[in-house]
Specification:
197 residues, alpha/beta, 4-stranded parallel β-sheet, 7 helices, flat
């Protein structure tokens, strides 16, 4: 039997960055607690736990003396606020592609635009994105949900539209085409990461 390894096997850039950062902290003797599982890979998470990393549900559950690692999916602004209020040290392993979407969400807030997010509302990445705006937001998983939405509370309100970095590309294209026709005030940002495309 011949076994061939796929050319693209392994972690994407953001996940690799988070794992490497956490590994370096552990190698340096730091006590590390990640906010939720670092990545969607139970074997890697278990391996980090064997090396001493702990998984904390939130900032209040971080044991004393531990440095927090913010996972690759990112977190809402409220989590950064909690970390600061508790005086916890942290390293931010948020994928740079996700951090770019956080900046768009903050801009939507600053400019009074409605933020529409293509993605899974229960996914930590999407929860983190929505958590960077205090303004109106809407999460849709597919074209049907988008079509069923009545749009922003004020129909004249600008919209910023982003996608979860791992959103299915064909669904995103369908949704983008619909948005271009249905909402002339929508600014659509292509935020699906290269590895997903």
């Amino acid at each position: 039997m011949e076994i061939r390894l796929a050319k693209t096997a392994g972690f994407c850039f953001g996940v690799d960055r988070a794992v490497q950062l956490t590994g370096r902290l552990l190698d340096a003797g730091e006590k590390v607690a990640t906010l939720g599982p670092l990545i969607h890979n139970p074997q890697v998470v278990a391996g980090l736990e064997r090396r001493g990393a702990r998984v904390a549900a939130g900032p209040a559950q971080v044991p004393p003396g531990y440095k927090v690692v913010i996972r690759s999916h990112g977190v809402p602004q409220s989590v950064y606020d909690q970390l600061a209020a508790l005086g916890l040290a942290w390293e931010d392993a948020t994928c740079p592609f996700v951090a770019k979407i956080h900046a768009i969400a903050r801009r939507a807030d600053e400019e009074g635009a409605c933020l529409a997010v293509a993605g899974d509302a229960a996914h930590p990445e999407v929860q983190g994105i929505v958590g960077h705006t205090r303004g109106e937001s809407f999460v849709f998983a597919n074209l049907e949900e988008l079509k069923a939405w009545n749009g922003p509370e004020n129909p004249k309100k600008r919209m910023f539209v982003v996608a979860q970095t791992t959103f299915q590309a064909t669904k995103w294209q369908e949704c983008s085409e619909f948005l271009k026709k249905a909402y002339t005030n929508a600014e659509i940002f292509d935020t699906i990461c290269n590895a997903t495309w």
